[in-house]
Q: What sequence folds into this?
């Protein structure tokens, strides 16, 4: 087991919902990054979680910025620190909407320029801040306030999009596996260039499950194979521990879906689509890991 | 039919009645309920509009532009940062002469993040060529949204219209709402320059100074003509449905020595302040400016004025107060109040009138003099 520092950089006075995965993830991100870190946060749940001025629950500098602007703002910050000879970690902490939808242009630009920073997308698969509307990252079949009949389009494959920029490091993680998350943040920050971390964030009010089940839901996501933990370091893919086992013998996806109100009444076509997308993704990653692709 | 609704739901109900062909929108507090309600109508099959859940406001307005130039009726809704992010396409919609209707739920601009009412967001778009109207009640939000389509699509106008309602104060307030059976109040319309495969044309082509100048002048001509179209539309609306607002709504105005001028919900709040002042023997009245573009010609001579701005133009002054100074040649007492949702009650407004200092400006709660 990796030793996780006792220091807290996110204090006990946040305005997060009970069972919030975003603040849980951020807690471990900051433990791994340490105090020489600046967070850049676009509009998202984390804008609210910090608390209301003049108070803040955060123990590192946090630069809040416009919804579409995080990766570009971080580019400027990273260059300025570098010019001043500082090694300060610049970490974007953004939601899925701020990453795969409105923020994707700035994200792509920053990665193409090999900006030295870590971009973390915590993915609760909808617009949490504004009350759970669909995002490009919402899975097919999920009900949100703008897809009351279930979403008809598939989840955008942001990992493949970012991978096409050939970053030094790209990994997925999950709120339910803090050790894995901690190690990945440390590794990302030890490498030069642009790094991307995509973290699944099972969100109790958004996904409609009770607030003590955040970790259980994250584990089910990994065990069912709908969420795969992997790393891509300088292009080389490794599937990580918990997912290796899950891909050999996955738990039934139905169990994962049944635990969440957002999938209530989902039809068989959508379930089949979710399954075949997960299977295709697993196969692709396995082949990459074996060096076949 | 008499119901109870929030300002947002009233806007959605009006949009449903008008049946746009294409709606493209992006959620943002406090507008979100409009988008969600429309998504529900479309999903339930109560509305046969195409609803595009775009990935940003820039794309929302771009999608409306693309739909509108084919001759389709279009609608979107936004607020503050969303409006700012769409700014380029807001210009595009007016410059391309597209009768798009947009609801803007007025909210302050960051940083820091603030989700409460302020008019600065829409005022930042005032020079784009959009008509702008500001409402003060749930009923007025509904009625004005209906009228907005007819005005935008009128052959003498063919310009986009922005319907503004105060964030939370109106967007989330429940009030009674009388919905109407629309009949032919908003008739089908024809976009004269719609894309026509039989007559290929270049749109938005590189344009030299003389032609550009001419296009700008045409926008201004339509703006001027819209004054009559607004009046005629309001009259027809009153004839059919019994409600009338005017370009600016007067309250106990006729014999008033001192007049409070404001926009949106503050303009309604002022009416209560007027009653209080009248009870004290002050001959007060109020005037709520509804249409901000085109800006009304108001004869305000011979009265003392207290103008409340829920906005500010830095290095200049309150936008409404100074618009009146320029247009109506008056010397009002300018009060800056309610920025970022600051609470302003009718008692506060009565206080502004009691302590008025003609020709001066005060920031409510800052100068310590109100
Ligand atoms: C230009 C702009 N459009 C819309 C908004 C409103 N808004 C703020 S946060 C948000 C959704 C954020 O979703 P996501 O990035 O997934 O983060 P989450 O809230 O789920 O943490 C929206 C739509 C905004 N602040 N700025
Ligand atoms: S909506 Fe979900 S992600 Fe957002 S604060 Fe609440 S629990 Fe956290
Ligand atoms: Mg999200």
A:
């Amino acid at each position: 087991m990796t030793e996780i520092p006792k220091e807290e950089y996110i204090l006990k006075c946040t305005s997060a919902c009970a069972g919030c995965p975003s603040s849980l993830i951020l807690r471990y991100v900051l433990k791994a990054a340490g105090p020489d870190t600046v967070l850049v946060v676009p509009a998202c749940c984390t804008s609210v979680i910090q608390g209301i001025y003049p108070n803040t629950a955060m123990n590192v500098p946090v630069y809040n910025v416009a919804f579409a602007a995080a990766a570009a703002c971080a580019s400027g910050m990273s260059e300025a620190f570098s010019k001043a000879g500082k090694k300060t970690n610049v970490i974007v902490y953004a939601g899925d909407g701020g990453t795969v939808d409105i923020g994707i242009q700035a994200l792509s630009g920053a990665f193409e320029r090999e900006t030295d920073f870590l971009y973390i997308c915590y993915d609760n698969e909808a617009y949490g801040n504004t009350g759970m509307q669909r995002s490009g990252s919402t899975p097919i079949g999920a009900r949100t306030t703008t897809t009351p009949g279930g979403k008809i389009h598939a989840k955008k494959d942001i990992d493949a999009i970012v991978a096409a920029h050939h970053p030094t490091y790209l990994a997925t993680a999950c709120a339910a596996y803090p050790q894995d998350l901690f190690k990945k943040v440390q590794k990302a920050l030890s490498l030069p260039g642009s790094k991307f971390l995509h973290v699944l964030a099972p969100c109790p009010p958004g996904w409609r499950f009770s607030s003590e089940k955040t970790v259980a839901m994250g584990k089910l996501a990994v065990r069912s194979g709908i969420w795969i933990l992997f790393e891509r370091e300088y292009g080389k893919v490794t599937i990580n521990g918990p997912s290796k086992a899950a891909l050999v013998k996955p738990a039934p996806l139905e169990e994962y879906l049944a635990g969440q109100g957002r999938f209530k009444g989902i039809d068989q076509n959508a379930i089949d689509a979710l399954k075949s997308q997960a299977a295709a993704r697993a196969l692709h990653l396995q082949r990459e890991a074996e060096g076949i692709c | 039919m008499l119901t109870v609704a929030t300002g947002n739901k009233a806007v959605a109900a009006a949009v449903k009645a008008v049946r746009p062909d294409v709606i493209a929108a992006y959620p943002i507090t406090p507008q979100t309920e409009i988008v969600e309600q429309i998504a529900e109508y479309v999903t339930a099959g109560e509305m046969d509009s195409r609803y595009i859940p775009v990935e940003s406001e820039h794309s929302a307005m771009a999608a409306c532009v693309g739909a509108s130039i084919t001759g389709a009726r279009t609608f979107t809704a936004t607020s503050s940062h969303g409006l700012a992010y769409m700014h380029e396409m807001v210009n595009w919609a007016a410059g391309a002469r597209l009768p798009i209707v947009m609801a803007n739920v007025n909210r302050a601009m960051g940083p820091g993040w603030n989700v409460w009412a302020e008019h600065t967001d829409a005022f930042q778009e005032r020079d784009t060529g959009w008509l702008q109207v500001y409402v003060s009640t749930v009923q007025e939000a509904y009625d004005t949204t209906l009228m907005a389509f007819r005005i935008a699509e009128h052959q003498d106008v063919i310009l986009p219209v922005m319907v503004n309602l105060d964030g939370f104060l109106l967007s989330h307030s429940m009030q009674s709402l009388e919905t109407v059976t629309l009949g032919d109040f908003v008739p089908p319309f024809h976009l004269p320059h719609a894309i026509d495969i039989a007559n290929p044309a270049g749109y938005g082509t590189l344009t030299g100074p003389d032609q550009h100048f001419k296009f700008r002048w045409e926008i201004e001509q339509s703006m001027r003509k819209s004054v009559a179209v607004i009046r005629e539309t309001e009259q027809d609306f009153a004839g059919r449905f019994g409600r009338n607002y005017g370009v600016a709504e007067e309250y106990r105005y006729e014999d008033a020595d001192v007049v409070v001028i404001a926009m949106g919900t503050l303009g309604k709040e002022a009416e209560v302040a007027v009653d209080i002042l009248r009870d004290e023997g002050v001959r007060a009245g109020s005037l709520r400016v509804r249409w901000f573009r085109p800006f009304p010609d108001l004869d305000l001579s011979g009265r003392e004025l207290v103008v409340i701005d829920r906005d500010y133009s830095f290095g200049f002054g309150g936008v409404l107060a100074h618009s009146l100074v320029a247009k109506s040649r008056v010397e009002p007492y300018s009060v800056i109040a309610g920025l970022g949702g600051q609470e302003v009650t009718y008692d506060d407004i009565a206080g502004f009138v009691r302590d008025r200092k003609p020709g001066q400006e005060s920031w409510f709660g800052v100068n310590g003099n109100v």
Remarks:
- DSSP finds eleven helices and 15 strands in chain B.
- The first helix of chain B runs from residue 7 to 18.
